[in-house]
Amino acid sequence: MTFRKYLVIFSIALFGSVGDAFLARGMKDAGSIDIHHVTHLWSILANPFVIVGIFSLLIFMYCYMTALSFADLSYVLPATALGYVNMVLLSIFWLHEHVSTRRWTGVAFIVIGVGLVAGGPSRTEHPCPSMSESAAVEERA
Amino acid sequence: MRTLYTWLCISTTVLAAASGDVLVALAMRRIGDLGDLRRSHGFAAVIIRLLSSWVLFGSVFFMTIAFFSNLVGLSWADLSLIGPASAALTFIANAIAAKWFLNENVDHRRWLATIFVCCGVLLLTRS
User: Fold this and answer.
1) For the segment B62-99, what is each residue's pLDDT rounded down to a tens digit?
2) What are A60-112's pLDDT values in tens digits?
3) Which residue from A32, A44, A65 is facing B34, i.e. has the nearest CB?
4) How many CA within 13 A on the CB side of residue A24?
C-alpha cells in the first residue's frame, strides 16, 4: 500500500461522511414522504443541500471504485469507517458539540477495527488457473 | 405500520447496497487498477472502460435502489435509527457476500475488524 492508496481510502471516508451529512440536512427540509406520493422525491433533487450531498457522493463513488480496483471489498469497507470518526471530529471542532464517553468508546472501537484491517493484506491473491493447470500436468508427469 | 415501513426500507437498503458493492468490486477486479490505467492511457480511457462495463451498470442500478430507499427511510425515521442500522447490517452483509461471491479471504482479522466497526458505529450513533 502506497501513500496514494491510503489517500484514496481517506478520501472515501471524507466525502462519504460529508455527502451523508448534507443529504440528511436536505431531507429534514423536505419533511416526510408519503408512500402514495413517491414521485415527490424528484422535487427533493432541487434542494441545494441534496445537490451538494449528491456531488460529494459522486466524488466518493470515484474514489471508492479506485480503491476497489487495488484492494478487497472486505478490506475497503472497514477501512473507510474512518468517516464516522470524521463526523465526530467535525461535531467537536466545527459544531462545538459535547461528545459523550459512549461516543468516544465508539470512536475507539472503529479505530481498532480500522487498525486491524489495515494491518493485514489489502488484496486476496487468487491462484492463476493456467498456472495451477500446468502444475497439475507437471505433477502427473 | 410506520415501524414496518422503516424496517422494510432498512432491509431494502442493506440488500441493495451489498449487491451494489459486490458488483462494483467484481467490475473493478475485471477492469484493473484505475490509477495505473489513468497514468498509462489518460482519464478518458478510464471513463471509457468504466462505461463499457455492464457489471458496473448493474451495481449502479442496485446502488440507486439503496440510495432512494435510504432517502425514503430518512423521511420516515430519524438518522439515529436509519444510519446505524443500515450501516452496521451492510458491513456484515458485505463481509458475507465478499467471502461467498468474490472468494475473498475474509480471515479472523477481517471478521474481527468488521465486528469492531459495527460495534463502534452502534455506540456512536445510538448514544
Assistant:
1) 999 998 898 888 877 777 677 778 888 888 888 888 88
2) 988 988 898 888 888 888 888 888 788 777 677 766 777 788 888 888 888 88
3) A65
4) 14
Q: pTM (2 decimals)?
A: 0.74
Q: Which B residues in the span 58-87 are in contact with A, Cβ-Cβ below 8 Å? A: 68, 71-72, 74-76, 79, 83, 87
Taking CA–CA distances from B24, the nearest residue in chain A reads: A65
C-alpha distance from residue A141 to each of A80, A129, A136, B49, B94 (Å): 48, 18, 9, 42, 42
Q: Give the ipTM of the model, two decimals please.
A: 0.79
The CB density around residue A81, as the number of other CB atoms within 10 Å, is: 28
Task: Say whether residue A46 is in contact with chain B using an 8 A CB cutoff.
Answer: no
Contact yes or no for B117 and A68 at CB 8 A: no
What residue numbers bound the domain in which A100 lies? Answer: 3-140
Inter-chain contacts counted by CB atoms under 8 A, chains A and B: 150
Model confidence pLDDT, tens digit, residues A4-25: 888 888 899 888 888 877 887 7
- CB atoms under 10 Å from CB of A77, counted, come to 25
Residue labelled with grid coordinates 477492469: B31
CB neighbours of B98 closer than 8 A, spacing ≥ 6?
A: A72, A73, A74, B22, B25, B104, B106
